[in-house]
Each structure stands twice: as C-alpha cells, then as structure tokens.
Amino acid sequence: MPADDEIILLLQQRNEEGIRRIRDTYGKLCEGIAYRILGGREDAEECVNDVLLTVWNSIPPKVPEHLQAYLITLAQRGAINRLKAAGRQKRGGTYFAQALDELAEVLPSDGYVESEVEQRELARAVNNFLDGLAPDVRRVFMQRYYLSLPLRDIAEENGMNLSSVKMSLLRTRKKLKAYLKEEGLQ
Amino acid sequence: MNARNLMEAISERPEEKVAQDLLNSTGAENRADLPETAEFISVDRAKTAERRPFRLAHHVMFAASVAAGLALVGGFAYLMHALGNKPHTVKPGASVVQITEETATNAISTGVIEVTTTTTAAEQGPASVVPAESVMDCREINFPVSLNGKPVSIWGMLDEDTVLVGLIAGDNTAAVDSGTELGTISVAGGTVGAFQKLLTLTDEQNPVAGDGRYLVIAERQYAQDGMVVTDCKYRLFDIAAKKLGDAFWTQSKQDGQPVGGGSCTPPVLDGNAVYFDDYSISAETGEIVTTVYAYDIATGQVTASYENFYRPMLYRGQLVASRLDKTAGTQCLMTVADDGASFAMNYEGGILHAVAGRDGVFALTQDTLKELTGGRTVTDSLDGAQKLTVGDSMAVWSRITADYSTKPMVYDIAGNRLLSLDTVTELPDDAEFCGYTSGRTALVQVNNADRSVFQFVLLRAQ
Lengths: 186, 462
Fold this sequence. Notes:
The complex is a heterodimer of chains A (186) and B (462). Chain A has 186 residues and is mainly α. Helix content of chain A is 73%, strand content 0%. Chain A folds into 2 domains: 2-85, Orthogonal Bundle (Rna Polymerase Sigma Factor, Chain: A), CATH 1.10.1740.10; 95-182, Orthogonal Bundle (Arc Repressor Mutant, subunit A), CATH 1.10.10.10. Chain A is built from 9 helices and no strands. The radius of gyration of chain A is 18 Å and the shape is globular. In chain A, 51% of the residues are buried. With 462 residues, chain B is mostly beta strands. In chain B, a hairpin with a 3-residue loop joins strand 27 (386-390) and strand 28 (394-400). Chain B starts with a helix and ends with a strand. The chains are: A mainly alpha (186), B mainly beta (462).
C-alpha cells in the first residue's frame, strides 16, 4: 500500500505530515471504532488522539506491516482500556454493550477475573479458536466482537441478510462456548 | 471469568491476524513490537504526561466526571450503521417536517429552508419519503430560552461546515415574533422556526451553548504536531449582528506553566456573562483544582467566579455548578454557586447524564430516569437510555430496544407520564435521534442511516 508506506516514511523522518495524513485517511475509522465502544464522541476523539500519539511515539522504531490494522488495534484496545479506566463495565446503548451482552451467553458468570495469567490463557484459547474458523465466519465474528459493528453493517458489508448474520454469530458463540469448556476455561 | 474477560481476550488478537480477519491482508508476523494491552496504558499515560500535561489532566478530569456520574451531555449523534431508505409509517397525531437535499441546498445558498410539513390524519398511509443525498447532520443544541418573551429552544443543524439555527417555540405560540430575522413556519400543534444560515465553522469549531442572542462556539486548539488537542477557547457569535467575537479562555497552570485553557465542556450563558469551567493541577499533589470562570460579554474580561466548582448549568434561572465531594468519593455535590445553603444535592453513582431543566434536575442511570431535585424516580424501566434532554416541562431521551433499534422517548414532566413516540410513529430501525423540547412540545428528529432523509416529529403533551 504505497500511501501507507509514504506515511510510515514521513513518520520515520519525524515529519508531522505523517500524522496529518493518518488523521485524514484513518481518523474516522479509528473514531468509529472508539465511538462504538465508548458511546461518546468526546471520548472517541480522545481515544483517536491517544492512537495518534502512540503512533508518533512508536514509529520509529516500529514499522507496522499493515498500518491500518495497527491503527485498528490501537483504537480498539485504547477504547477498551479507556472504558476500564473509567470504570464503566457496561454503558447502555452502545454497540459495545450490546456485543458484550451477546458474549455473556458464552461466559455467563458475573465475576470478572483480574488475574493476568488467566486472562492470557483465555486470550490464547480465543486466538486458537478464531484461527480454526472459516475466514468468512471469522470475519463476521470479528466485525461484531472486535469492532462492535452494528448487525446491519455486518450484513451489508458481507452481502448477507440480517438473519444470516445473527445465525452465524449464534453458531460461533455456541462453538466458542463448547471450545472454552473443553479447554477448562468455563 | 465473564463476558468482559472474553471481550478483552478477543481484543488481544494479534495485529497481523486482525489484518487477515478484517482487511483480507496477509501481514507479516510482527507481534513482538506491538504494545501489550497492559503496557499500553502505562506507557501511553507516561508519555502523555511528559508531552502534554493538559491531556493528562483532561483524562483525570474525565474520569472524575464519570465517577461523579456526570457524563457529557451533547456531542454529535453519530450514525455508524447502514439502513435502507424505507419509508416509515406516521400514525395519527404526529406532525412531520421533511428536509431533503433540495431544501438543504437551498438553505445553504439562500439562508432559508423551505420546509414542507405534513400533519397526518387518522389512518393516513405512509408519509412520503424522498430519498436524496443530504449534506446535513444534526448537532444537539438545546437551549431553552426566552425570545421576545416567548419560550423557545434554539437548535442547530449543519452541513459539513455550516451551522443552521432554528427555533422551536412553546406550545400554542402562534409564532415567534415575525420581527425576528428567523421567521416562522407553522406546524399543527406548535411552531417551528425557519432555518437560517448563520456562520461557517472550521473543523475545530463546535457550537456548545447559546440563547436568543448568542451562540458560544468552542474552538479546539491543536498542538504543533497537529494531532492532539492542547486547549480550548471559546468565541461568542452574535446572532443578530452575525459577528464572531474574539476568543476567550483561561490559562490553567501546572508547575507554574500554562497547560491550556478550558475543558471545552458546554458553558452557560447567563445574563451578560458566559460561565465555563477550567482546571489546574497542583504541582505538589497532582490534585486537580476546578474553577468556574465568567467571561464578561461587555468588557471581555475573564475572572474566576467559583473555585472548586465545575460543569456550570442553569437551574430555575440560577447558576448551579457541580463540586466533587472528595470525602465521599464518587459522590458529587451540586450547589448553587452563589449560595451553597440554598440548594445542595448528592449525585448517586451510576448516573450517565444529569441535566438541569427549568424546574428540576434530571438524571439518567442505566435503567431509570430520576428527578434528583424531587428525590423521585420517574421511571425505572429504561433500557439503554441515553442522550437526555430536558426542557421546560418535557424530558426527551433515546433508548436502544432489544432488537437494537433506537426509540425516542418523551416524558411529560408536568403531567407525570411517559409519552412514547412508539405510539405515534414507527421509526426505522437504528434511526438516528436528536431530541429538543420546549414548553410542552417535544421535537424529535429521525434520520435514516445514510442521512438522506430527515424528519422532525413534533409531539405535544395534551
């Protein structure tokens, strides 16, 4: 992706134009991700600013292989961290909250586990599980539970109808539940 | 472990796999140099503190605000989802105003939108909805004010860089004074003012308050690197003169150094002053000190008015502000800034929005709407409620239903009853929502997803 390469080159030269181009090109994408998780525009803007600052501080030395994915990752994690920092486990009305509700079927416990070891083990298992899914099924799952996209957007982007999206997610959640049980994580 | 753990586990999926999953890319393995989630917080915060102290203060301030249950009211109503242009059925009793691209474009060129109105009769069929590319968006501006002795709310719409401001008058008001520049459009059950192009804004400018005379425009300043907001200044726009005034702000201090001006929270226009909050950080303790400042419109001077207060609002015509009760932790004391003894109340935890209306302070929690001043729960059956707006006698908010559609809700404060717009209109799924209320009239805007059609449903409490 030449445009991204150019941006990375600008950043490596410590040229602020690189940040401006990221804002112009990917700012809305990152803000959308953050907004869906946080549910507030100002929060989302703050999150985007954090992403840009992290990019500025990390490139160089980092050279992301895929700039857009790097930004998505930073925005998503940044928004979730911000949510955690603010102590809002669930904020009504956001797509993130809806997605969280759906995931409660998989791990219905009320208890949030702080243990890093257990969290890492869960992340490993989820990662393995996702690797085993068909690409189109995985894409739908990630769009819903990573990007917190509305169901209608997912349907449209994948050329599916709403019912198919819901059904796909339901099946994947059930599979994930069974998988985590096998792994002793439920 | 619960769903939050699971969501966090999903969020830890490696970047190159995210690229494959979502972007159909085959990025190379470079997980090693991606910050871990835990590090992300500490490293980022540390760098933030080093490079932009104001931002750290803002983060802390934000957390404090949330802890106090004072989530920001306002901001854009974002629409992140797609929908078809399906017409929706308007049931008897609703008045509908439609704005399409043609009228919007006309407004931008001439300054006036010619709005067509439809008052539905009993059993009337679907409203005629004309899909069109629209350039308009909705900004939540809801300032119940008096104009020429009549209660009105001023509210705004914008295209990409233009604010159009309209007025909605109170119930049974024949018209906003015809002598005003804004003119009127009569709609059964109320009066909606015409739109008028007022000013063109830059990306950094956003209208955040106003009354019949002025709009307050917040102007965010970015650092030289162009990527972070370092401070915020305000400008006063004189509606009659159509003139944007000089910027005003205050300089907070950290370690004796200015760290920006203004938190950019909505200020309050009261008399001949604009009240806004700002904060500074103690060099010794790192403690945040908040202050409500006053900008004197006549002299252009900014003075510190109320120390240890923030988030100014108007309640019963009086300036009130919030104060973090440090001994009670997350509780927040709201006090009339001039006279602490006259009115004080505790915010409970879990409040998403707290809004002062003319006769009460209302708050949304996850599932309840409360009148804090009266100590009563208005309703305890909310589901995903958000975006509370309180007018003279009506409260409007939206909720997300179980099937993920957005429903505007209206509460008639005086009549102590809920008026659900479900009863008058079948809104499209995931409709965008902005609510305005004045007098006993509530105005609800619904858009379809691509913003090609805007409809305003006017609802009056009988």
